[in-house]
Specification:
By secondary structure, the protein is mainly β. The chain has one domain. It is built from two helices and 14 strands; from the N terminus they run E-H-E-E-E-E-H-E-E-E-E-E-E-E-E-E. A hairpin with a 5-residue loop joins strand 8 and strand 9.
Protein backbone atom coordinates (compact mmCIF):
# COMPACT_ATOMS: atom_id res chain seq x y z
CA UNK A 1 0.00 0.00 0.00
CA UNK A 2 2.85 2.40 0.67
CA UNK A 3 3.67 2.46 -3.03
CA UNK A 4 0.17 3.61 -3.95
CA UNK A 5 1.20 7.22 -3.52
CA UNK A 6 3.34 6.85 -6.62
CA UNK A 7 0.16 6.37 -8.59
CA UNK A 8 -1.55 9.37 -7.43
CA UNK A 9 -2.36 12.48 -9.24
CA UNK A 10 -0.05 11.84 -11.22
CA UNK A 11 -0.33 9.26 -10.17
CA UNK A 12 1.14 8.02 -10.05
CA UNK A 13 -0.22 4.61 -11.28
CA UNK A 14 -0.58 2.38 -10.66
CA UNK A 15 -0.40 -0.25 -11.16
CA UNK A 16 -1.84 -1.15 -14.73
CA UNK A 17 -6.73 -3.62 -17.85
CA UNK A 18 -6.11 -4.82 -21.01
CA UNK A 19 -8.98 -3.09 -22.67
CA UNK A 20 -10.90 -2.51 -19.44
CA UNK A 21 -12.26 0.93 -18.58
CA UNK A 22 -14.41 2.61 -16.01
CA UNK A 23 -18.04 2.26 -17.09
CA UNK A 24 -19.12 4.85 -19.67
CA UNK A 25 -22.48 5.14 -21.46
CA UNK A 26 -22.80 2.94 -24.53
CA UNK A 27 -21.20 4.39 -27.62
CA UNK A 28 -21.26 3.94 -31.37
CA UNK A 29 -18.17 2.99 -33.36
CA UNK A 30 -16.40 5.64 -35.35
CA UNK A 31 -16.93 5.42 -39.10
CA UNK A 32 -13.72 4.43 -40.94
CA UNK A 33 -12.15 6.57 -43.61
CA UNK A 34 -12.10 5.52 -47.23
CA UNK A 35 -8.88 3.66 -46.49
CA UNK A 36 -10.59 1.80 -43.63
CA UNK A 37 -8.64 3.59 -40.91
CA UNK A 38 -9.23 6.59 -38.68
CA UNK A 39 -6.42 9.16 -38.61
CA UNK A 40 -5.80 9.86 -34.93
CA UNK A 41 -2.51 11.66 -35.43
CA UNK A 42 -3.87 15.09 -34.39
CA UNK A 43 -5.54 13.54 -31.32
CA UNK A 44 -2.29 11.78 -30.35
CA UNK A 45 -0.54 15.14 -30.52
CA UNK A 46 -3.04 16.63 -28.05
CA UNK A 47 -2.79 13.54 -25.84
CA UNK A 48 0.98 13.91 -25.89
CA UNK A 49 0.71 17.49 -24.65
CA UNK A 50 -1.60 16.35 -21.84
CA UNK A 51 0.80 13.52 -20.91
CA UNK A 52 3.60 16.06 -20.50
CA UNK A 53 1.40 18.09 -18.14
CA UNK A 54 0.49 14.88 -16.31
CA UNK A 55 4.19 14.31 -15.70
CA UNK A 56 4.42 17.79 -14.21
CA UNK A 57 1.51 16.94 -11.90
CA UNK A 58 3.61 14.14 -10.44
CA UNK A 59 6.38 16.59 -9.57
CA UNK A 60 4.29 19.59 -8.52
CA UNK A 61 1.05 18.07 -7.25
CA UNK A 62 -0.09 17.94 -3.63
CA UNK A 63 -3.00 15.76 -2.45
CA UNK A 64 -4.58 13.66 0.27
CA UNK A 65 -4.67 9.93 -0.43
CA UNK A 66 -6.90 7.32 1.21
CA UNK A 67 -6.38 3.71 0.21
CA UNK A 68 -7.66 0.28 1.13
CA UNK A 69 -6.43 -3.12 -0.01
CA UNK A 70 -8.24 -6.39 0.73
CA UNK A 71 -6.68 -9.83 0.46
CA UNK A 72 -9.32 -12.35 -0.59
CA UNK A 73 -9.50 -16.04 0.24
CA UNK A 74 -10.32 -18.77 -2.28
CA UNK A 75 -14.07 -18.24 -1.81
CA UNK A 76 -13.83 -14.48 -2.38
CA UNK A 77 -14.15 -13.51 1.27
CA UNK A 78 -11.92 -10.86 2.84
CA UNK A 79 -8.98 -12.51 4.60
CA UNK A 80 -7.00 -9.38 5.43
CA UNK A 81 -7.25 -5.61 5.08
CA UNK A 82 -4.76 -2.76 4.93
CA UNK A 83 -5.86 0.90 5.11
CA UNK A 84 -3.67 3.90 4.48
CA UNK A 85 -4.10 7.67 4.73
CA UNK A 86 -1.28 9.95 3.67
CA UNK A 87 -0.69 13.48 2.53
CA UNK A 88 1.75 14.42 -0.22
CA UNK A 89 3.00 18.00 -0.30
CA UNK A 90 5.07 19.16 -3.25
CA UNK A 91 7.70 21.86 -2.89
CA UNK A 92 10.36 23.04 -5.36
CA UNK A 93 12.96 21.16 -3.35
CA UNK A 94 11.21 17.86 -2.61
CA UNK A 95 7.94 15.99 -2.30
CA UNK A 96 7.04 15.33 1.32
CA UNK A 97 4.93 12.24 2.02
CA UNK A 98 3.39 12.14 5.49
CA UNK A 99 1.75 8.92 6.64
CA UNK A 100 -1.26 10.02 8.68
CA UNK A 101 -2.65 6.57 9.42
CA UNK A 102 -1.89 2.94 8.59
CA UNK A 103 -4.15 0.14 9.83
CA UNK A 104 -3.57 -3.56 9.21
CA UNK A 105 -6.40 -5.98 10.00
CA UNK A 106 -7.88 -3.47 12.43
CA UNK A 107 -4.59 -2.81 14.26
CA UNK A 108 -3.05 0.65 14.13
CA UNK A 109 0.50 0.29 12.79
CA UNK A 110 1.12 3.89 11.86
CA UNK A 111 4.36 4.04 13.82
CA UNK A 112 5.76 0.95 12.10
CA UNK A 113 4.81 2.31 8.69
CA UNK A 114 6.55 5.61 9.39
CA UNK A 115 9.68 3.76 10.51
CA UNK A 116 9.76 1.72 7.30
CA UNK A 117 9.19 4.88 5.30
CA UNK A 118 12.15 6.58 6.95
CA UNK A 119 14.37 3.59 6.20
CA UNK A 120 13.24 3.48 2.57
CA UNK A 121 14.14 7.15 1.97
CA UNK A 122 17.74 6.14 1.32
CA UNK A 123 16.68 3.88 -1.56
CA UNK A 124 16.82 5.48 -4.99
CA UNK A 125 13.87 4.78 -7.32
CA UNK A 126 14.60 2.82 -10.49
CA UNK A 127 14.43 5.38 -13.29
CA UNK A 128 13.87 2.57 -15.80
CA UNK A 129 10.56 1.72 -14.11
CA UNK A 130 9.21 5.27 -14.08
CA UNK A 131 5.48 5.31 -14.91
CA UNK A 132 4.47 7.25 -17.99
CA UNK A 133 1.19 7.42 -19.84
CA UNK A 134 1.36 5.56 -23.18
CA UNK A 135 0.43 8.90 -24.78
CA UNK A 136 3.64 10.59 -23.64
CA UNK A 137 5.66 11.78 -26.66
CA UNK A 138 8.60 9.60 -25.63
CA UNK A 139 6.32 6.56 -25.24
CA UNK A 140 4.12 6.77 -28.33
CA UNK A 141 6.63 5.04 -30.59
CA UNK A 142 6.33 1.93 -28.39
CA UNK A 143 2.59 1.54 -29.07
CA UNK A 144 -0.07 0.96 -31.68
CA UNK A 145 -3.09 3.22 -31.10
CA UNK A 146 -6.62 2.75 -32.37
CA UNK A 147 -9.70 4.96 -32.03
CA UNK A 148 -12.33 2.34 -31.27
CA UNK A 149 -15.43 4.16 -29.97
CA UNK A 150 -17.19 7.49 -29.87
CA UNK A 151 -19.67 8.21 -27.08
CA UNK A 152 -23.10 8.50 -28.70
CA UNK A 153 -24.29 10.76 -25.87
CA UNK A 154 -21.28 13.07 -26.03
CA UNK A 155 -19.54 13.02 -29.40
CA UNK A 156 -16.52 14.80 -27.97
CA UNK A 157 -15.66 11.73 -25.88
CA UNK A 158 -13.76 8.98 -27.68
CA UNK A 159 -12.05 5.77 -26.58
CA UNK A 160 -8.50 5.14 -27.68
CA UNK A 161 -7.02 1.66 -27.33
CA UNK A 162 -3.28 1.10 -27.01
CA UNK A 163 -1.08 -1.98 -27.29
CA UNK A 164 2.73 -2.08 -27.09
CA UNK A 165 4.83 -3.60 -29.84
CA UNK A 166 6.97 -5.36 -27.23
CA UNK A 167 6.01 -6.69 -23.80
CA UNK A 168 7.62 -5.06 -20.75
CA UNK A 169 6.82 -4.18 -17.14
CA UNK A 170 6.59 -0.53 -18.24
CA UNK A 171 4.52 -1.27 -21.36
CA UNK A 172 0.75 -1.41 -20.92
CA UNK A 173 -2.23 -2.67 -22.86
CA UNK A 174 -5.60 -1.05 -22.37
CA UNK A 175 -7.73 1.90 -23.40
CA UNK A 176 -8.74 5.38 -22.32
CA UNK A 177 -11.80 7.56 -22.76
CA UNK A 178 -10.51 11.01 -23.64
CA UNK A 179 -11.78 14.49 -24.47
CA UNK A 180 -11.14 14.73 -28.20
CA UNK A 181 -10.83 18.53 -28.22
CA UNK A 182 -8.48 18.98 -25.26
CA UNK A 183 -6.68 15.64 -25.30
CA UNK A 184 -7.31 15.19 -21.58
CA UNK A 185 -7.80 11.68 -20.21
CA UNK A 186 -11.20 11.05 -18.59
CA UNK A 187 -10.82 7.39 -17.61
CA UNK A 188 -8.03 4.90 -18.09
CA UNK A 189 -7.90 1.11 -17.85
CA UNK A 190 -4.70 -0.87 -18.33
CA UNK A 191 -2.51 -3.84 -17.41
CA UNK A 192 1.26 -4.27 -17.64
CA UNK A 193 2.14 -6.66 -20.46
CA UNK A 194 4.88 -8.20 -18.34
CA UNK A 195 4.62 -8.63 -14.57
CA UNK A 196 7.27 -9.05 -11.86
CA UNK A 197 8.10 -12.47 -10.47
CA UNK A 198 5.23 -14.14 -8.56
CA UNK A 199 2.65 -11.69 -9.91
CA UNK A 200 0.36 -13.23 -12.52
CA UNK A 201 -1.80 -10.29 -13.47
CA UNK A 202 -2.65 -6.72 -12.51
CA UNK A 203 -5.64 -4.67 -13.67
CA UNK A 204 -5.91 -0.95 -12.98
CA UNK A 205 -8.72 1.52 -13.60
CA UNK A 206 -8.41 5.26 -13.04
CA UNK A 207 -10.94 8.08 -13.01
CA UNK A 208 -9.66 11.61 -13.72
CA UNK A 209 -12.11 13.93 -11.95
CA UNK A 210 -9.74 16.22 -10.04
CA UNK A 211 -9.43 19.62 -11.69
CA UNK A 212 -6.00 21.30 -11.47
CA UNK A 213 -4.28 24.18 -13.23
CA UNK A 214 -2.47 21.60 -15.38
CA UNK A 215 -5.64 19.74 -16.32
CA UNK A 216 -7.50 16.70 -15.09
CA UNK A 217 -5.74 14.61 -12.45
CA UNK A 218 -6.64 11.17 -11.07
CA UNK A 219 -9.38 11.14 -8.44
CA UNK A 220 -9.98 7.40 -7.98
CA UNK A 221 -7.99 4.26 -8.67
CA UNK A 222 -9.17 0.65 -8.55
CA UNK A 223 -6.79 -2.27 -8.86
CA UNK A 224 -6.90 -6.04 -8.80
CA UNK A 225 -3.86 -8.30 -8.58
CA UNK A 226 -3.34 -12.03 -8.61
CA UNK A 227 -0.18 -14.00 -8.01
CA UNK A 228 1.70 -16.25 -5.64
CA UNK A 229 4.17 -19.07 -5.39
CA UNK A 230 3.28 -22.57 -6.66
CA UNK A 231 -0.04 -23.58 -5.05
CA UNK A 232 -0.14 -20.56 -2.71
CA UNK A 233 -2.10 -18.00 -4.70
CA UNK A 234 -3.01 -14.49 -3.62
CA UNK A 235 -5.87 -12.27 -4.76
CA UNK A 236 -6.00 -8.58 -3.91
CA UNK A 237 -8.55 -5.82 -4.50
CA UNK A 238 -7.73 -2.20 -3.81
CA UNK A 239 -9.18 1.28 -4.01
CA UNK A 240 -7.52 4.68 -3.75
CA UNK A 241 -9.18 8.09 -3.59
CA UNK A 242 -7.34 11.37 -4.10
CA UNK A 243 -8.70 14.66 -2.78
CA UNK A 244 -7.43 18.18 -2.11
CA UNK A 245 -5.47 17.93 -5.34
CA UNK A 246 -3.63 21.07 -6.42
CA UNK A 247 -0.50 22.21 -8.20
CA UNK A 248 1.63 23.67 -5.43
CA UNK A 249 4.25 25.61 -7.36
Amino acid sequence: MARCSRFAPLLLVLLAGAGSTVAIPSAAHDAPTAQGKVDIGPLLSRLGSYALRFEQMEKRGSFLLKGRMDELDTSGGVDGTKELVLRVTATPGERVTEILKYIEDGEDKTGEARAKQAKAKSEKPDAKKKFRLPFHPLEQRRYAFTLVERDARSRGRVRVAFKPFERAETAFAGSAWVDEASGEVLTLGFSPTKTPLFIDHVDIKMLFDNATSLGRAPSSVWFEARGGLLIIKKHYLGTVTLTDAKISF
